[in-house]
Amino acid sequence: MINHIIAFSIENKLVVGLFTLALIGVGIWSMTQVPIDAVPDITNNQVQVITQAPNLGTEDIEQFVTYPVEVAMANLPGVQEIRSISRFGLSVVTIVFDDELGAYLPRQLVNEKLAIVKDEIPAGFGESFMGPISTGLGEIYQYTLEVDERHAGRYSAMELRSIQDWIVRRQMAMVPGVVEVNSFGGQLKQYEVAVNPDELRAIDLTISDLFAALRDNNQNTGGAYIEKNHQANFIRGEGLARDLADIENMVVRTVGNIPIRIADVAKVQYGTAVRYGAFTKDGRGEAVGGMVLMLKGGNSNQVIGAVKERIAEIQTTLPEGVSIVPFLDRSTLIAQTTRTVSYNLLEGALIVVLVLVFLLGNWRGGLIVASTIPLSLLFAFILMNFFDVWANLMSLGAIDFGIIVDGAVIIVEGTVFYLAQRLRQGQLIDSRSRDDLTFGAASKMMNAAFFGQLIILIVFLPILFLEGVEGKMFQPMALTFIFAMLGAMILCLTYVPMASALFLRPARAGRRSWGDRLIAWLEERYETALQAALKRTTLVLGAAAVLFALTVLSFNRMGGEFIPQLDEGDIAFHIILKPGSALSEGIATSSKIERLLLDRYPEVEHVLTRFGVAELPTDPMPMDIGDCFVLLKPKEEWVSAGTKEDLIASMKETLSVVPGVNYEFTQPIEMRFNELLTGVREDLAVKLYGEDLQVLAAKAEEMGRIIATVEGVADMKVEATTGLPQMTVNHDRDKLAQYGLNVNEINRVIEGAFAGARAGVIFEGERRFDLVVRLDSVHRTNINDLKNLYINTPNGSQIPLRELADISYEPGPMQISRDNTHRRTYVGVNVRGRDVRSLVEEIQQKLDARLELPPGYYIRYGGAFENLERATQRLKIVVPVALALIFLLIFFALRSLPQSFTIYLSIPLAAIGGVFSLWLRDMPFSISAGIGFIVLFGVAVLNGLVLISSWNELEQEGVSDLHERIRLGARRRIRPILLTALTDILGFLPMALSTSAGAEVQRPLATVVIGGLLTSTLLTLFLLPIGYRWTETRSLRLRGATLILIALLSFLIPSVAFGQEPGQLPGISPEEAVERALENYPKLRASRLEIARREALEKTAYDLGNTQIFTGAEELGGGNAGVYTILGAQQQNIDVFGIRPQKELRREQVRLAEGALLLDEWAVRQEVRQAYC
C-alpha cells in the first residue's frame, strides 16, 4: 500500500503539486478561523446559583437558602460536586457537572429545580437565580470610568455609577459573545426618604405610615376609554412621582384639616443603597468600573475586538470629560503568549533548517525537508478548525518541528545516499532514473520511517484520556501534535517523494560539503568507539545499569508539582483585614497600599483594588477581603527587581508597614481559576470537615500554627468562619404577647428603619431608581439607635424596642463553607521555593503527630495538590498503555521479539537523560514533564528502529558476517540518526531556553525531551549494537543446534532404510499425490503467475501517467529583440472517464484467468487419478 502511494506520487507530480497548493490555500484560511487564547480554559462545567437576601444573617442564609438549594441539586444527573458559601446576605451554591453534558443542559436542569426550590425558601428571603454562562477565562476586559483634569470634581461617585449602569452597560449588552457586564464601585443612586424618629413620634406617626403613603401616592392607572366624535379617547391617570418635590408633597395624614406632608416629617434626598463592595484606584480613593464577561466557548480575540469597537462608539456618547480607560485587557496576554509561541516555533524551524542543510550536504534536500514544516502546520490548522481545537500556548507551544520532519529526513537522506552511490558507480542519472532511485529509497526507508512516525503518533493517544484540569491542559497539545504528525506522514508518502524526484540532484563528483566531511569524520570516530564498546560489553552495560539506577534514585527523591505557574505579566494579591472590618476601613487601607506601591516601584503602572462583592456576586468576598491588581510595565523597564519572585518579596517587605493586614500573592487568571476549580484561591488548601463552627474555627487556628512551621509555606491564610460583629435582637415573647405584637411586625420595622424599605420606583426617562424609606444617618450610628426604635402597638401607643427584646453584641459566623453538603473550613497556603508534593508530605507528617481531632472531623487536601494526585494516578495508567503500544508497533515493524526488546532498551536510556536534565535545571516533576516523558519514549525508539532495519536489510542483501553487518549498518545510518536526533533536540531548544510570557509551562516538557534524546541517542549507538549482537548470536546458536540435529538424523535414516525390504517402502495415497501435483505442476504455477499479473494490471487503472516538467526558449524577432522562455508541465494519459471501464475490463480479465486455473486444476486431478489407477 505504501509503495503504491509513493509510486503514484512520483509518477503524477502535477496531481501532487495541485494537492499541495490546495493544502496551502485551505490551511491559510483555516489559520484565520481557529480561535486564539493565551491558555486552555480549564474551568470545570459548573453552574452557580446565587441568592441575595441583604438583611439575613449567615446561619439564616445557610439554613433557609443554601441547604434547600443543595438538597434539590444533589440528585441531578451528572453532578460531580456541590460547593457553597453562605455569608451575611448572600448564598452562592456551585454545582459541578460532567463535561460531557455540555454548557446548556446543566443550566436547564438547574433551572427546573429552582422552580421547585422557590417554594421552599421563605418569602422575603431572596430569589435564587443562575450566574452568567462564563468561565475563568471569561473576564476578558475590565475598565474604569475616568474624569479628566478639566472636569475634576464635577461628577460624584454616584453619578459615575449611574453613567456606568445606564449608558455603558446598556450599550455593551448587545456585543456578540458578551454574556454580562458586571459593575463595581461607586454608589447606587436611590430616592431616599430619611426619617427623623423624634419628629415622627411627636406627631404619633411611624415609618410604616410613611411607607404606606409613599406606596399609595406613586401610581399610574387607566380608565379604559370614552367614545366621542367617532373616536376612542383613552383615560390615563398619572400619579407617578417624577422628582424630589413630588415626593415631598405627598400627604401622610390629615390632622384638623391640616395635611401632614412627607417633607414635614422627613428629609427627601438622593441617597445611596447599602453596599457590600467598593473599588479604588491608584491611591486616589473610590472609582467606578466594569468587567466584561465573555460567553463560555467564545473566541476571546474576536469578542475583545468587538468590545473595543463598541467602547469606541460609547466614548462619543459619554458626558463631557468622562472616558472609559481599560486596566485589564486579555488581548495583551494573548499577544504575549502568541508571540512566545511564534518565536519558539520560528527559531526552532530555522535551527532545524540550518542543521538539515548543513548535515545533509545538499541544500535542495534540506529545503525539501524544511518545506514540510509549514505544510504540516497548515494541515494541523485545517484539522484544528474542523475539530474546534483552540490555538493557545499549550496546543501550539509543544510542537517540535524536528520530530515532525523525522520521516522526511530519513527519506531525503536515503535518496541523497542512493544518488551519490549511483554517481560514484559512473551511471547516468536522468529524470527516469531519479524517479526510480527516489522510489527505491523512499519505499525502502519509509517502512522504518512510517512505523517511527506511527509510534510517535500513537504515544500521544493516551494523553487524550487524561481527565480534569490536566486533560483540558494537555489534550489540545496532543490533538495538535497528532494533526501535524498526520500531515507529515501524508506528506512523506506524497509530497516528499515527488519533490525529491523532481528537485534533488547529486553533488558533483569529488566535491564534498562541510556536512559530508563532518559526517565522514564522525563515522570514523564512531566506528572506532563502537569496536571498543563491542570488546568491552560488560563495562558498557555496567555503566548503563549504574546510570539507570542513579536515575531511579534521583526520580524517587524528586519533588512534584501540578503545572508550572504561567507568568501572566501582572500581579494580584489579597488584602486581608481583621474579620468584620467596615468597608470604609478597606477603602482607606487599599488607598494607602496603592500609594505605597506606586511611590516605591517605578515598574508599577497602575494599582486597583476591589473590596467585597460586585453588583453580580459571582465572586463572594466579604467586605474585609480585597483583590488588589498590580499592573506592571514591560520587563525591560523594571528597575527594582529582575524576576517576579524578587519583586513580590520586595513588595511584601514594603507593605509590612501597614498594620493589621495580611497578604496572599498570586496572579489575576490563576486566582480566578483556583477559586472556580476548587473553591479556594490558594495553591494548596488543607480542608477540615466537621459540624460545629466553633470547633472548626479553633482546630483551623491550631492547624495554621503547625503549618506555619513548614518550609516553603507562604501567604498562609486561615479561613475566617467566626468573629462577625453582630447586634442581636432576641425577642421577649412574653412582652410581645402582652402588647399584642408579633415577631414579623417588629422585624419589618427593624428592616425598614436601618436597611431601608423599598416603597416604589422613580423613573427618570428610561432610568429607574428605588424609592426607599429609612432612618436618617444620624439615627443609624450605634446600638442605642436600635434600642430606641419605637414600635406601634395595636392600641395606638408606641413602645421602644428595648422593652420588647434583649439587644446585645454577639459575634456570629463570618462565613459557612460547605463541600457536598458538609461544613468545612480550610487553611490556605501558597507555595514558594518548594514543590507541592514534598510540602504536603511534611504537612501531613506534622499534622498527624501534633493535631488531635474530635470524632467525625477529618482532613482533606485540595487545590493544586488534589489536581496533581489525580493526574499522577491517571499517568500511572496512561504511561504503561503508551509503552505497550510502542512495543506492539515495534514488533509489527520488525516481526522479531528479540529485536523488539532490543529497541525497547532506548526507553530506559532516554529516561536517564530526561530525569537528569530536570535535576540539573532544578525542576520538580510536573504533569508537563510527565507528558514530556511520554513524547520522549515515542521519539527515542525511532533511531533504534532505523538502526536495526539497516542491519536487517544488509542481512537480506547477503551480508552474513554479524560483525561486518553491525559495522556497515551502524556506519550507514549514522547520518539519519544524528539528523533526526539533532533536529528533535534543536527544535525544542528555543522552548527550553525561552524566558518570555508563557514559557514556564513549556520548559519542563522541552527539558525532558532534550535531555532524554541526548542520552538515548548516545547510548543507543553503542548499547543497541551490543544487544543486537547478543540476540543474533543466540539465534545463530539455536540455528547451529538445529543443523547438528538434522545431520545426526541424516546418518541414522540411511542405515534404517538400507535394512528394509523394497516392499516395505512407505506408500503415498491418491489424495496426497493430487495435492503434490497441484502444488508443483509447472502449468498451474504459470496460471497463478498470470492471475497475479492481471491483478497488478487492475491496480494500474487509476494510473494517470508520468508528469513531465519542461522548459524552453525561443528568440523573439531575431537579433537582440529578446528571448521568450517557456516553463510548463505535462500530464500524460489523462482519461478521467476511461478509468472505470479500464477497471472493469481488467477485473474481468482476472476472473477469466481464475476460471482457466480452475479448469487446469480439474484436468490435473483427472490425469493423476487415472495414472494411479
Architecture overview:
With 1173 residues, the protein is an alpha+beta fold. Among the domains are: 189-224 and 234-272 and 728-806, Multidrug efflux transporter AcrB TolC docking domain, DN and DC subdomains, CATH 3.30.2090.10; 361-511, Multidrug efflux transporter AcrB transmembrane domain (Multidrug efflux transporter AcrB transmembrane fold); 570-666, Multidrug efflux transporter AcrB pore domain (Alpha-Beta Plaits), CATH 3.30.70; 1070-1172, no CATH class. It has 38 helices and 34 strands. The strands form ten sheets. Strands 1, 2, 3, 4, 20, 21, 30, 31 and 32 form a nine-stranded antiparallel β-sheet that branches. It has a five-stranded antiparallel β-sheet with strand order 13-17-18-16-19. Helix 16 (431-459) packs antiparallel against helix 32 and helix 36 runs antiparallel to helix 38.
Uncertain regions: pLDDT < 50 for 5+ in a row? 1036-1066
Global structural class: alpha+beta
| Strand count | 34
Morphology:
elongated
Q: How confident overall, as mean pLDDT?
A: 82
CA radius of gyration:
41 Å
Oligomer: single chain
* Strand composition percent: 15-25%
Distance between the termini: 48 Å
CATH topology grouping of the domain at 189-224 and 234-272 and 728-806: Multidrug efflux transporter AcrB TolC docking domain, DN and DC subdomains
Q: Please, what is the CATH homologous superfamily of the domain at 189-224 and 234-272 and 728-806?
A: Multidrug efflux transporter AcrB TolC docking domain, DN and DC subdomains
Quickly count the helices.
Answer: 38
The major sheet is characterized as: 9 strands, antiparallel
CATH 2nd-level architecture of the domain at 189-224 and 234-272 and 728-806 = 2-Layer Sandwich
